[in-house]
Amino acid sequence: MAGSKISENVKRFIAAYIDSVELLEVLLLLRSHANEWSAESVSQEIRSSPTSVTKRLTDLCDRGLLSMKDSRPPLYFYKTRTDELDGAVRELAEAYRERPTRVIELIFSKQTDTLRDFSDAFKFRKDD
């Protein structure tokens, strides 16, 4: 993928699963370290708030990208629901390593589109 564009598969994956850079960082951290993580340890590693990281971890579990060990505190680890998701995460990790700015732009453009759609809902048309 070096020097190439971001694949359509990665673009679709970002559109469907990744809604923040923080979520991406949490996912890739757990993917790259095959051990169990508490929300606190993840927050220290990526230098973010434990509350925000806990939400991201929960979101990733709900989306089938991580699994959780029910303990006190809960422990999270990388295990996707399907092999297809694992392949998509692998491809995303490669794209982020080679073209991080472009991947971040895709995440933010998704947020911009959502905001634009929201604001468009409040536009008045002549016939209203």
Automatic annotation (TrEMBL):
InterPro entries hit by this protein: WH_DNA-bd_sf
Organism field: Candidatus Manganitrophus noduliformans
UniProt name for this protein: Transcriptional regulator
